[in-house]
Design a protein that fits this description.
Layout lengths: L14 H7 L4 H11 L5 H6 L5 E2 L4 E3 L6 E3 L5 H7 L20 H14 L8 H15 L4 H8 L8 H4 L18 H9 L1
Antiparallel strand pairs: 1-2, 2-3
Length: about 190
């Protein structure tokens, strides 16, 4: 199944260290952790500003909701290397030209990180968020409202899929995965 939760050893333990050993930049490791350990979407990572990351209190603000969440990280040195307290309104993640890091760049970082970690299938943001949601919902037994806030979802009912027992082959990671969209049906007919 395309977006089924990945079966990672002790959810995400040691992946950031593997990336550091593989020569990934501090920015790539921090962007990877923002998605995989904190459940951020690519657009939220790209829009992250210096004022949204408070390393002294170990928290990060989700731009879509404005909620402050605990910053989950294995390599706080990667985050400290990017911190710039002098310019609080500047972007936290920057491209080589100094502009905003694109969503596509974040997808590429995630894909390359999955390859470096030796995952059998390419890692994508939906899989990473689904895996984190299942880990938080089942292993850490978070309440539905707390889990929804942590994942950046508006409605606590949308996290029910993370609270069910995890069987990667049986549970779709999103409601759209359980049925084919009309566009896909028409594309299949054309072939």
């Amino acid at each position: 199944m395309r977006n089924a939760p990945l079966k990672l050893p002790a959810p995400f333990a040691g992946l950031s260290r593997i990336l550091a050993l593989q020569g990934f930049s501090e920015q790539s490791i921090a962007a990877f952790e923002a998605v995989v350990l904190n459940g951020f979407r690519a657009g939220e990572v790209a829009a992250l500003q210096q004022q949204d990351v408070d390393l002294s209190l170990g928290r990060i603000r989700r731009s879509t909701s404005g909620d402050w969440l605990p910053l989950r990280t294995e390599r706080s040195s990667a985050w400290r290397a990017l911190a710039d307290p002098v310019r609080p309104r500047s972007l936290f993640f920057r491209s080589r030209s100094g502009g905003s890091l694109s969503r596509i760049s974040i997808w590429r970082i995630l894909r390359k990180a999955g390859e470096a970690a030796g995952l059998a299938e390419p890692l994508n943001i939906r899989q990473a968020r689904a895996t984190l949601g299942h880990a938080l919902g089942q292993i850490h037994a978070l309440h539905a409202r707390t889990l929804a806030t942590s994942m950046g979802l508006r409605d606590a009912r949308s996290v029910q899929r993370y609270l069910m027992p995890c069987d990667a082959d049986a549970i779709p990671s999103s409601p759209r995965d359980s049925r084919a969209s009309p566009r896909r049906k028409s594309a299949k007919r054309r072939k």
